[in-house]
Amino acid sequence: MQRETLPFVTIAIPTYNRARSYLPVAVEAARAQSYPLLEIIVADNASSDDTAGFMQSIGDLRLRYLRHPVNIGANRNYNYCLSKARGDYFLLLHDDDAIDRDFVDACMKAVNYKVIQGVIRTGVRVMDHCGDTLRETKNAVDPAPLAQYYQAWFAGRTNWYLANTLFNTRLLKDEGGFRSPYHLAEDGFAIARLARFGRVDLPDVKASFRVHAGENTM
Fold first, then answer.
1. Residue 70: what are its φ and ψ, rounded to 5°?
2. Is the pTM here over 0.85, yes or no?
3. Is 54 left (phi over 0), alpha (psi -120 to 50) or beta?
4. How confident is the model at residue 2 (pLDDT cuts 50, 70, 90)?
5. Residue 1 confidence (pLDDT) above 60
6. Which of 29, 72, 197, 200 is 20 to 30 A removed from 165 (C-alpha atoms)?
7. What is the Cα–Cα distance from 109 to 15, expressed in whole angstroms?
8. DSSP structure string for 47-75
């Protein structure tokens, strides 16, 4: 397939004070993607460490480093990332998570390089603070009715994380981005809303969610 016919993909990494820990892993995972047509946004939520220096040391024309002068809160930073996204598809990658080298490529192959689905999701592994795998969960979700799709999440047959979810950018923006009535679980609400526009679930594990002390991204 010709490069100019491929969907454009945005990988956005909101970050706060992780230049000396997990941010380099997340950034390298984004830069190492085998898929050729993407941009990488790093939105620094007024970090007090050397995030700016680390980002400025990276020479990659696909990368845009954006820094807030004051901390605007985690979810507002997620939506800021979305507002700056130019891609047809959008991945919000937390600064302590990671994706496999072929994550985007596998997702694009699954939709035959079309911009049609609400969400594209892979299986996911959970890793500890050292990067060691604690468990893996494949997507055990068939093309069931939407209600059964939601029930599969409650039953643990699929995991709703941001690291393993590609959103249709236009639809996510149209639906108001990451929001919820009580300002909780905004990521889950976003997946639930966009799933009704169509979904593709890859069984293969292609993304990593990290659990550790202080894992919330500010």
1. -135, 155
2. yes
3. alpha
4. low
5. no
6. 72
7. 29
8. -SSSHHHHHHT---TTEEEEE-SS---HH
